Each structure stands twice: as structure tokens, then as C-alpha cells.
Amino acid sequence: MLFALLDFRRLRIKVNQRHAMFRALQVAMLSVACTSWTSAHAQNPAAPEPCERQWQLLATHTHDPQHFTQGLVIFEGRMFESVGQYGRSGVHEVNLADGRVLRSQALPANVFGEGLAKIGDRLVQLSWRENTAYFYDLSLQPKGTLPYPGEGWGLTTLATPAGERLILSDGSPWLRVLHPTTLAEERRVRVQVRGQPLKLLNELENVRGEVLANIWHSDEVAVIDPSSGAVTGWFDFHALRQRLTWPPPLHPTETDLNGLAWDERRSRLLVTGKYWPQLFEVQIGGCVAPSAPQ
Prior knowledge:
This protein is mainly β and 294 residues long. The protein has a single domain (17-286), classed as Lipocalin, CATH 2.40.128. The protein is 6% helix and 46% strand. It has an 8-stranded mixed sheet. The longest helix is centred in the first third of the chain and has 9 residues, at 20-28. It starts with 19 loop residues before the first helix and ends in a 7-residue tail after the last strand.
């Protein structure tokens, strides 16, 4: 997933660390062409200023540090995880309490697993550059494949007037809205921070109608209004990274935050990452109160 894109860390503005990612993006990112649908619906100069969102750590669980996490789903207490890397990709059902793998389904060795979502009674798993989505039932039995154009990174679902749809990210500023049974693209939404495109959108999760998007190579998660594409807020989960403890001799170099799953039943967000040895349960809230002037 190598792109000639901006490095968030190099762009951080020292004056205001909490708003650095978004300030840097609005100054440094170039505008991209918009479709007529986007021009009508996604350009919103009156969009509110994105705010940092509150979160609180509730619980810590064991996570397999051999899993290159690419997608996470929890449904009625059952957790499913998509893992990547060629020759090691697949989908697992995992016991949340202790991290044990309960059942697995491997992908072909030439397929790199990516995002995962549940729609209806099926799981859908993306592949990175293989242009193929894999469908499973909830016992992880394969139920077929469908092609789609371009790369696949993150995947989630969204309720629309036409029914539930899949939302796909590919590292660009665009979220693609796909029909759930054909994967035909129905429209695109350009994700933007105060009118400027936000690239590197990776793992996705629908939380009560908002789309959370992990920003690749970052511990920050953007909160997106899927109707307009406007980023309305973000979560900074760097403090979770500081809690990671790998069992020796493991200490991988690629450890991006890359697993988000909303537990609707308990109103908690599950957060983990590539090769992370822990998985965290957090409670999420509204905007962080602004600091008092010094």
C-alpha cells in the first residue's frame, strides 16, 4: 500500500498538537476532482470544525500478536477478525475473553486479506490487490466470491433508504458505496476536512450512523458524516499504543492501529492493531472540552 502521500507525522503543526493532523491537511493536501453527486452533497463549507472526541478505557484483553489485523467485527458477543499477509491471510472467530481462535478459514496463499464486515447473515472479506471479495456464513464456511475494481482496504456497512449497503475504503479520500449482493458501485463520497480531501482511509466501522476510519500509519481515527463526507471529529488512541506489551522476543516493526469493531449490545468500541498483543474495550463520547486559555 505504498503511495506518494503526505506523512502525517512530518506535517504536525507545533502550535496546536491536538488539531495538528487536520490543520496540516487543510494546508497541505491538494483538491481532487469531484463527481456531480459529490459536488451537490459532499461540499459543505458550513461543516463544523472537527473536534477531538472523548474516550475511556474499560477493559484490556489478550490478542494474538501473530495476527496482522485488517478487519474486526463483533456480533451478539461473537468476534471475527480478518488477518493479512500473503500466505497467512484468513478470517478467524476469536474468543474475546482470552484471545483464543475458535475457528478459521484460510485464504489462498496468493491473496492478501483486508477489511471485514457482516451484512445480513454473511461475512464479507476484502482482498488488497486481488479484486475479489470472499463471502462466508457465520460458521466461516465459504459462500462464494465476487469481483470488484481497485484495491480493498477497509469495509463496513451503512443503513440507507435503499437498504443496507457496504462501504469500502481504498486508501484514497473516497468511500465507495456498494450493493451488498452484487458489489456494484452505486456512488462515492469524498471524505474531507473543511473542504480538503483526507487520504489514507483504512479500517472502517459504523458507529450509530457515523463512519469511523482509521488513518493509515496513525493512531488517530476520523469520525465521518457518511452523507456529506465531512470529518466531524477524531479519536486519538496513542495512549493505547503506550499500553502494548509484546511477549519476548516479539516486537514487530509494523504495528499500525487497524482493528475497530462496535459492540452494539454493550455500547463499546473494540480497538486493536496489526500484531498487537492486546485488544482494548473503550467507551466513546462527545467532544473533548476545550482547554482554558493560559
